[in-house]
């Protein structure tokens, strides 16, 4: 795995990033897959961005994961991998963002949509986010960090026994308890 990761992280993208162009689909796919467990990468669906910045399917997969490429319009480098049952939730959020809504407005809209039954949240689903810094000179992704989310809608501190913040570095904790977005956070120490 180290050899594969080293290879992927060394793919030059200078022509794309230095001139403000959209990275090609091959680079988007290979880097988006870094957020997925190695054994799931061959079958994951990969979403990325077209020249206009719209989210598109770069590769249709047969597995349970969806990987999302780095959004070149955002600072830093961030790719994600999540269970395919979360895709309607993610699409809903992307649509609200395109409408100009901010984080709290999107949160509230999702909460209302889930409570009304217009948006279905899975009973539980996972998400992994890999972040890092893109070195424009070398094209490498440096200082990578991966964190994990386990969605458990409407769970609470009482129903899980988890605290509202990590008890020790890297320990799990619950975020947004009692809401559609209740989730267990796992932030390994850096």
Brief summary of the model shown:
The protein is an alpha+beta fold. It has six helices and eight strands; from the N terminus they run αααββββααββαββ. α4 (87-98) crosses α5.
- Fraction of residues in H or I helices: 25-40%
Shape: globular
Number of strands: 8
The computed structural class is alpha+beta
Any overview of this molecule?
The protein folds into 2 domains: 2-148, no CATH class; 152-190, no CATH class. It is of the alpha+beta class. Helices cover 27% and strands 26% of the residues. It has 6 helices and 8 strands, in the order H-H-H-E-E-E-E-H-H-E-E-H-E-E. Helix 4 (87-98) crosses helix 5. The protein has an 8-stranded mixed beta sheet, covered by helices on one side. The radius of gyration is 17 Å and the shape is globular.
Protein topology:
Blueprint: H1 2-9, H2 14-18, H3 25-32, E1 45-49, E2 55-59, E3 65-68, E4 77-83, H4 87-98, H5 103-116, E5 125-134, E6 141-151, H6 157-160, E7 173-175, E8 183-186
Helix pairs in contact: 4-5
What are the salient characteristics of this protein?
single chain, 190 residues, alpha+beta, 2 domains, 6 helices, 27% helix, globular
